[in-house]
Amino acid sequence: MIQFRELSRLSAEEKARIMRRAEQDIRNLLPLAQEVIDRVRTEGDAAVVDYARRFDAKNFEAPMLRATPEHFAAARSRVSAEVIAAIELAHENIATFHHEQLPEKMWFTEVKPGIMAGEKISPIASVGLYVPRGKGAFPSVMLMLATPAKAAGVPRIVVVTPPTPEGTPDDASLVAAEICGVDEVYVVGGMQAVAALAYGTETIPKVNKIIGPGSSYVSAAKRLLYGVVDVGLPAGPSESIILCDEHADPRLAALDLLVESEHGPDSAGTLVTHSRAVAEKALEILPQYIAELPEWRRKFVETVLSNYGGILLTNSLEESIQFVNDYAPEHLEVLVKDPFIVLNKLQNAGEILLGEMTPIPTANYALGLNAILPTGGFAKTFSSVSVWDFLKRTGVGYLSREGYDSLQGAVATLADYEDFPAHALAIRKRNQILGIE
After folding, report:
1. Quick one: how far is CA 235 from the chain centroid?
2. Which residues are part of the catalytic machinery?
């Protein structure tokens, strides 16, 4: 049953549940995540292999943990030329966009005469990219992670991605990795993959940062490993809002509502509009579209639209916009008469796609924008993956004698006020040593 809700009639509890989406699922998984993390930390490869057998491939063995050159060659031979061409096109656009994001490697400004302050931009030494698989394969996620990592100049890029039921890596994902210039791929997923990257095992290296979207299980493991390793932006189960006014075509709105809803049962997809006519027509059309999906995807959509998602009717476009800003969706598609005017009022979203010719799939694959986005309301403070996720800024300062002279008195005064005698001593003794009055 597709949920049809009116915002003004929702109880505080009902509204809170919509806002939380899969967050409750993540909290419930924390005890299991802690168990997996503890075992991987103490048992290494043995624990990783055990969980791989339990959850992914019954025949899994330790030698299967890393994708070999033979795997890459076989993958290239098995993936069709059409798919390879699509991956190459997407990679070209994604690379163009992310190279434009690159900052100057170093910059300085003269704060005052003799006072120079600036930053040195450096790549993170090692990153782990989590590329999910689930029921399908996601070479697009490989592109969205590996492309900006390579653009940023990360020296060691490590990929983890779940095995197929046969215990092998996904062919298209390996092709995408190769096109990006990445060859260190480990065939492991889930909580155990995240734990392995955080602590290191006999085979899988420890990294400085882990980034990439995953299920509620992966999100739970990341939550517990915060502080052990940089776990990047919160990228959990997929979610979207299709924002419509009375001018929106309900057929397109209904069609695009299915996009993120088909990812999994813990996803969230909501059509938000103040137009009852658009809402009711979309509700009428949705079952026809859902019926065209294969059964296993159809079940995901039906679960999502009867759970965290569905259709939400508001009293005005302004109320719809306020709901969007409170919700802070991962993907936001704007189907209104004047999308660029509405754009100025939209504050919180992982990405904003304007107009009926920019549906979510175009950005998920080949528009050039990064499709790894904050979920669970974290778009209020986090941004989409970019080259900045793979870079770090280091402040650089320089004082000439003139600059030092202009600062030393104020610095000693503030050090005295905050009761840091060594700070003040470093200034006053320096003055004595250097003969500065």
Report:
1. 4
2. 330-331
For the chain, the average pLDDT equals: 96
Which phi and psi angles does 65 have, rounded to 5°? -65, -35
Order across the sheet with 391-399: list the strands.
106-112, 115-123, 391-399
The DSSP annotation for 316-328 comes to SHHHHHHHHHHH-
Residues 245, 129 share a domain: no
Q: Nearest to residue 237, comparing CAs of 22, 14, 6? A: 22
Distance CA 377, CA 123 (A): 28
Q: What is the pLDDT of residue 136?
A: 72
The pair of structure tokens assigned to 399 is 């004082």
Average pLDDT, stretch 104-111?
Answer: 97
Q: Identify whether the C-beta of residue 87 lies closer than 8 Å to the C-beta of residue 172.
A: yes
pLDDT reading at 135 higher than 80: no
Percent of the chain with pLDDT over 70: 99
pLDDT (average), residues 334-347: 98
Rounded to whole angstroms, the Cα distance separating 287 from 171 reads 34
Token pair, residue 338, equals: 């004047």
Residue type, 218: V
Q: How far apart are CA 257 and CA 271, in angstroms?
A: 7
Number of domains in the chain: 3
Residues 165 and 271 in one domain: no
pLDDT in tens, 386-429: 999 999 999 999 999 999 999 999 999 999 999 999 999 999 99
Backbone angles phi, psi at 261, to 5 degrees: -65, -25
Say whether both 301 and 411 belong to one domain.
no
Cβ neighbours of residue 85 under 8 Å, at least 6 residues apart?
none
User: Please, which residues have CB within 8 angstroms of residue 332's CB and are 6 or more apart in sequence?
Assistant: 240, 241, 243, 324, 346, 349, 350, 351, 352, 353
Same domain, 307 and 249: yes
Residue pLDDT, tens place only, 2-24: 999 999 999 999 999 899 887 66
pTM: 0.92
